[in-house]
Design a protein that fits this description.
- Helix content is 40%, strand content 30%.
- The strands form four sheets. It has a ten-stranded antiparallel sheet with strand order 1-16-15-14-11-10-9-8-7-6.
- Helix 3 runs antiparallel to helix 4.
- The radius of gyration is 22 Å and the shape is globular.
- The N terminus is likely disordered.
Amino acid sequence: MGTQTGALAQRGAATAAGTVPTVPYPILIDDGWTSVAGATTALTLHRALYELEDRLLPVSVARGADMGARSVDFFYRFAKVIFVDNALDAYGATVTHEYVGHGARAREFGFRDVRYRFGAPFPFGGEAYTEYGSPSGWRLLSPTEEALLTVAGIEANNVGGKLNQLRAVRRGSMHYHDALAHLVAYFDGFGYVLGTNPADTSMGHDILAYLGVSAARYGVRGSRSGDVRRLQRQALLSLLNPYHLSALYGVASYVEFGRERVRLPALRLRGGVRYVPWLRTALTPFGTDVVLENAFVRGERLLDLSVRVGDGRYRAAWGLGMLAAGALRTGAASLDVTADAWRQPAITVGGATIRERRGGYGGALSGTVTWELPPVPLVHAPLGVVVQLGYKTPGFLEGERLDRGVIARAGGSVRAP
């Protein structure tokens, strides 16, 4: 642990000459390991692994600045990105999709005998999927739960993708590994939707299963091909994210010049505030949400305000979200506040019987406190203890449990550039 956390701090500081703000990388545990806890932890493990890889594999293998040396380094880094970096980053997205996504919802809904297959990552071939047994005992699976189970993998990568992007916005720069991970996670959902063939009859196709379950739940009539084309058009809206181009540039800049970090563009507001807006889409039990994210950064503090509007295909819904990272800091403790409010239709939850939770207004509120520990010998990065507490009413919120309940998570963290 000491060697790895030292790597997190030292290499990042060397890369940015101490100018990149540090952000926390937590490892979180909660009951059932929800997608929020799992995606957060997966990104921390991904960071540790790519720091180790970058220590073992140099940026440059040729000595000199002549054309021959630059060509050797270019092809070396190109091969490294394809066969090493991409394998690591793509595998992280795959594990998040299956274990943190489908697995989290399966655990929440009481499935037993959940099995995972993880084939070799791209470009080495292989496939990955999750197999379910049946809900434990006499537990019945509700229609809302069935819809969520089909797209839980995309949901988990959305949770991780948003966190990854907010960290980069907060720092004002991104590492090429984070850029590559963003592109892989983003195209996990975007590519899945665009590549959906309405004539596909294979078992286990998440998008087609989601459309079928949702249409049956709400009695919506329409052609399968029409529903697929509608979803594909909506997915194109998520291209309106400046981070995509920045991520592509970050990877290309590493291959061409060996730069491990690139700066992120932002709109400059008064008072030294940086503002980054972007659009994304999310699949919900009620249809597609179009989400407008608005990230404001001042110093090390971040405020993200999101507006979610459903397409009304199955039922109308909307929501508002807020994340205030570093809202309060006193001594060794810092506080993050997360709040959400929404208006949604009724949902159904399973159990011995299927129960309906009345629709209408709902919300969630939680606070995350991080206590920074005293310096630890041989560890060069600040370590901390993390506790998150809150409450959520019944309703869909990305990465959180469907039914009402207490939000309780705990773990540790390390701060790194």
